[in-house]
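subagent[fold] <- orchestrator: predict structure for attached chain, return tokens only, no commentary.
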Amino acid sequence: MSKGFEELIATTGSKKKVSVAVAQDAPVLEAVKAAKERGIADAILVGDADKIGVIAAELNMNLSDYEVIDVKDIQEAAHTAVALVHDGKADMYMKGLIDTKSFLKSVLDKEVGLRTGKPLSHVAVFEIPGVDHLLFLSDVAFIPYPTLEDKKAIIEHTVAVAHACGIECPKVAPLAAVEVVNPKMPVTVEAAELTRMNEEGEITGCIVDGPLSFDLAIDPEAAKHKGAEGRKIVGDADIVIFPDIHAGNLMYKALVHLTPCKNGCILTGTQAPVILTSRSDTFETKVNSIALAAVVAHNLK
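subagent[fold] -> orchestrator:
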């Protein structure tokens, strides 16, 4: 089981290949260069070859080590890049200098995209000081108000990522403000229903226990003090599932900006891992996201 990103990177196995859409983006090329140098992934760079060349020179990046496909038009570049993954010529798909809406349009393209018919969701993986294992958060960036069926899919996607990271039976905590079912708080009712689905075999490969407050999910001492020893999760959750995008996004940004953590993120529910990093994400987060996608791609193979 990987307890941190260095261990995770060591498990990437045979080097995977990432297809980058509109690759003339300095932060993305810097991360791609580091991923290649660290043995995580090779890359196919799709975009304006002239602009890619200028940026590569600034980064001391030898483009003879990469396949570069010259496509000037942004939409056409995304179409070409995602088709490489769809056709099995690359293992994962990464956003470059293209707006998120256009990038996702290529992901969902009916002919060459990566759609599976399942809801897409975002998984963030954190290495946090004081926590002795990787913590998986979902959904923090994609589905605003997930339905019960959405939450079931989010759990299944996140469990698959946890499995790829070496966690055989991850513990999943659907979060709420309280740890008891309250009919006036629909989030708690849905959390209990997800627990029932797990107990009856509708959600497999994990242990689900909810509703749980965040402290009971991740802090063994809090679970002990609150008398939660009888729960299936007593401060040792691997995965936390948020009730909506507001809770998830606030938690994500609090961790990123207030703690010395490391993290990586991928989009799931697709045929292959999709790396959808933000302009504000650090260089390290971009490299970790490529590593996470490579591990998941290796597991899918």
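orchestrator: received. Logging for downstream: The longest helix spans residues 283-300. The chain has two domains: 5-115, 121-258.
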